[in-house]
Amino acid sequence: MTLTQALKKHIKNTKTFGDLAAAVGAVETTTRFPVHNPSTGELLAELPDIQAAEVALAIDRADTARQHWAGLTARERSDILWRWHQLIVDHIDDLAAILTCEMGKPLAEAKSEISHAAAYVKWYAEEANRIYGETIPAPSTDRRLLVIKQPVGVVGAITPWNFPASMVARKIAPALAAGCTVVLKPAEQTPLVAGAMFALARVAGFPDGVLNLIYASDGDAVGKALCSNPKVRKISFTGSTEVGRLLMRQCSEQIKRISFELGGNAPFIVFGDADIDDAVEGAIQAKFRNGGQTCVSANRIYVQAGVYHLFSERFAERVRRLQVGDGFKPDSAIGPLIDTHALAKIEVHVDDAVKKGAMVRCGGRRIGATGTFFEPTVITNVVGSMRIAQEETFGPLAPIIRFEDPEQVIREANDTIYGLAAYFYASNLKRVWRVAEALEYGMVGINTGRMSSEAAPFGGVKQSGIGREGSRHGLEDYLEMKYLCIGSL
């Protein structure tokens, strides 16, 4: 069977899993759960529904492979990662099609995500060769002090549905580069592209047991099994803050290492001296990328009073031109929401805002009787008491809030338990530095609506997470420092 045939089987076969389970390193079981296309409701696949007891088999396999993988040279691990990167690039069309089928995002956006995933693999293929230690000046001549870095061990990784390819690469590429083995549980809504990437990883030459895939519909049970198993030395999770708190409690019994990228409530601030046209385009990117279903989406758009009406008019006009539809239609800029729960939440936020005096400038309604489509929506006259200003919507809904005092808007922007991403537009250099330093967020976009890069540290402060992904800092989260004191010299 060729790789392309395997990918097609993965997306089309709804009855058996069979050979493909072995091909991607997945644990097999007799029970199944369905995966549907959110645009059409079509059944895409029925995958093995791993139970908590079976998770231990994957962990054992990873633990068995751990010493061999860690014992390879950095160059040997790097070479396999390079091959995996090239295979992802070579199969970008297959992978993007799978991603669009299961998640719904427009095909062009899906291809961009696959390219981003490949970039993480490439980055850490390079970084694998740069795991350096230290020599420390000793306090006496009869000893030498050294620091070496070694892999943490078995890593349990849990990835979300909204970026099901890039989040897989962003977590496991640095783990593999560091010499760790991995047990991955992708989101039950979007597991297919992860399986396809694992199939490519097998072709790239990762040894048996280094990468292990857990398909399961009960994420809570799998998370508990990973956190409670002493062979798992680290948990890397991207998802809601609520689940992050639960996993953190479960990890505390064993003082297990964690890296969490959690919820956000990103402010987007437009000051009076901003370039309004640039700010409008930046807000479109920050708000409507992936249909607003990103943890770094602009959730509260603050606009200074002097440019409030100008920005609101231009922004609403720009949003009206966004086309909503199936991800495979070439003119679709926004696909469906992931499920009916997401659809219901955005409707609740719109209704609450309107009842409290807000004005819907465009959109505001679901589209069609099938699928989970919602109109790109702009709401003005928003105040802080509305749910839309307090909660993360996770959908194509943009609330615009007027402000007068620059100091006050910074206080309002920081008045949240979250601290993942923030954005602002301004031209005065003094203001740029002052606001950038005052915002209590792990990442700040200044005069830009997009800032993700494999070369930069991605992560938040406060209750938006612990640790960083991407960059050289992301590799450090998978390494332990060991101090060596050599005496009797």
TrEMBL record:
A molecular function (GO) term: glutarate-semialdehyde dehydrogenase (NADP+) activity
Residues in Aldehyde dehydrogenase domain copies: 31-483
EC number: 1.2.1.16, 1.2.1.20, 1.2.1.79
Record InterPro entries: Ald_DH/histidinol_DH, Ald_DH_C, Ald_DH_CS_GLU, Ald_DH_N, Aldehyde_DH_dom, Aldehyde_DH_Superfamily, Succ_semiAld_DH
Superkingdom, natural source: Bacteria
Keyword Oxidoreductase tagged: yes
Top-tier EC class: oxidoreductase
Keywords noted in UniProt: Oxidation, Oxidoreductase, Potassium
Catalytic residues, chain numbering: E261
Pfam name, any one: Aldedh
GO-annotated biological processes: gamma-aminobutyric acid catabolic process
The family this protein is said to belong to: Belongs to the aldehyde dehydrogenase family.
This protein's name: Succinate-semialdehyde dehydrogenase/glutarate-semialdehyde dehydrogenase
Organism: Rhizobium giardinii
